[in-house]
Task: structure prediction
Amino acid sequence: RVVAVVGDNHGRVGMGIGKARGVPDAIHKAMDRARDDMMTVPRIGSTIPHEVIGICGGARMMLKPAAPGTGVIASGNVRAVLKAAGVDDVLTKSLGSPNALSVVRATIDGLKKLRSVEEVARERGVPEERVTPFWSRGK
Result:
């Protein structure tokens, strides 16, 4: 079994799983499925707009926005997903299962739960400045 993560480093990321008798065939399947499953990740500058917890099975992944220059504080699997999505400053904590596939799926779930500043402002009927995090104002 192969788990592949693809992204454009500009807010789009996808994850795919491929199974086959041969490793090259499994990689090819995983990459194709990851490209088909790409989604857009809302970002503010180089980080995420708000804190979120992604869940998959026994794995829970907490993602927190970080100040510019912090970097990606994450394990190898989570780092691959976040870097592929173009998130350069974020704090993470894995809670629960250490299974690599569950952790990657929990990270993707957390990224799917993110809402953009524009979306939240529209729902609340307030200007975007009211819901923009304090650390990203002035950009």
Remarks:
- The longest helix spans residues 23-36.
